[in-house]
Design goal:
single chain; 343 residues; mainly beta; paralog of FGE (formylglycine-generating enzyme); four-stranded mixed beta sheet; three-stranded antiparallel beta sheet; 13 strands; disordered N terminus
């Protein structure tokens, strides 16, 4: 296994723009994979500039600060418009979100509706539905956010979302060509390095890694750049529109700071009558299992409709270029000292 060089930071880059961010040096790497799922191929050389990245996904307590400051109402808390979803059943046009519900026995793995359910009342404050809460989950990644919700937070925080190339470069942690963000063995010396599914998905979870669902940020070892949970736990939104690697081109700058497809090319070709654009999500989640979804790898990627929030999808932010004064968020005012208890 080769280790990418880690350039020495200059004085400007050492100025941390926000708390809990780490510097990711620019470099060239092989993005994607020819060994796994077809949407990851072909592997191709990409160069990215250096940037700052959150060391962990945005947490419930961090998102609460944003909501307290702005009174923002997320997509899952608003009823969908019948005009946006012609033909939808009236009972579905209510505030709701997508929740994983573990079946009691083996099910047909070709039918994801055996474990995914649209639950009225599910939202970031109640990730599994009205009966659930965030009590004891202040340090858990915030979930149940559609893309517009993530955009609103990122703008308030004075940050940006990573591109797919930036995210994958950072996830690799300086390891060139490694299968996982920590190396080539799934469980080196028998140790679990990420929160994923052990047992037969979706009905049998052995919890060998210590978790049934989402884990608090920082529960597993950081990668070589100091980033936590870049595999498993929750998927993460990126800013790129989804398209197969083989169809994405960047004629103006080649493979430098590569961006994804155009929005018009991101629609699902299997549903031509449903024109909902899709973004790339990365990293896998606690629901990824060897018998169903081996996507707890840096090359893995999936398409996510921008209007869909789920219980296993979060995000982290970046700041491109040299840093600024540390310890501030949003409008520049300190956010320390706000309450973080959840009921």
């Amino acid at each position: 296994m080769n280790v990418l060089s880690k350039p020495k930071l200059n004085s400007g880059e050492e100025t941390q723009p926000h708390q809990d961010m780490v510097w990711i040096p620019g470099g060239t790497f092989m993005m994607g994979s020819d060994k796994h799922y077809p949407e990851e191929a072909p592997a191709h050389e990409v160069t990215v500039d250096g940037f700052w990245m959150d060391s962990h996904t945005v947490t419930n307590e961090e998102f609460r600060r944003f909501v307290d400051a702005t009174k923002y109402v997320t997509s899952a808390e608003r009823a969908p418009s019948a005009e946006d979803y012609p033909g939808a059943k009236p009972e579905l046009l209510v505030p709701a979100s997508v929740v994983f519900q573990k079946p009691r026995q083996r099910v047909d793995l070709s039918d994801c509706y055996q474990w995914w359910t649209y639950v009225p009342g599910a939202k970031w404050l109640h990730p599994e539905g009205p009966a659930s809460s965030l009590k004891g989950r202040a340090k858990h990644p915030v979930v149940q956010l559609a893309y517009e919700d993530v955009e609103a937070y990122v703008k308030w925080a004075g940050k940006e979302l990573p591109t797919e190339a930036e995210w994958e470069f950072a996830a690799r942690g300086g390891l060139a060509g490694a299968e996982f963000v920590w190396g080539d063995e799934l469980t080196p010396a028998g140790k679990y390095m990420a929160n994923s599914w052990q047992g037969e998905f979706p009905w049998q979870n052995l919890k060998t890694d210590g978790f049934e669902g989402i884990a608090p940020v920082g529960s597993f070892p950081a990668n070589g750049y100091g980033l936590y949970e870049m595999a498993g736990n929750v998927w993460e939104w990126t800013t790129d529109w989804f398209q197969e690697h083989s169809k994405v081109t960047n004629s103006c700058c080649g493979r430098i700071n590569l961006r994804g497809a155009e929005q018009e090319k991101s629609y699902d070709p299997n549903t031509p009558d449903v024109k909902i654009p899709r973004k790339v999500m990365k990293g896998g989640s606690y629901l990824c299992a060897p018998n169903y979804c081996r996507r707890y790898r840096p090359a893995a990627r999936m398409a996510q409709p921008i209007d869909t929030s789920t219980c296993h999808l979060g995000f982290r932010c970046v700041v491109r270029g040299k840093g600024r004064v540390s310890g501030v968020e949003g409008s520049g005012k300190s956010v320390e000292g706000r309450g973080t208890s959840f009921e």
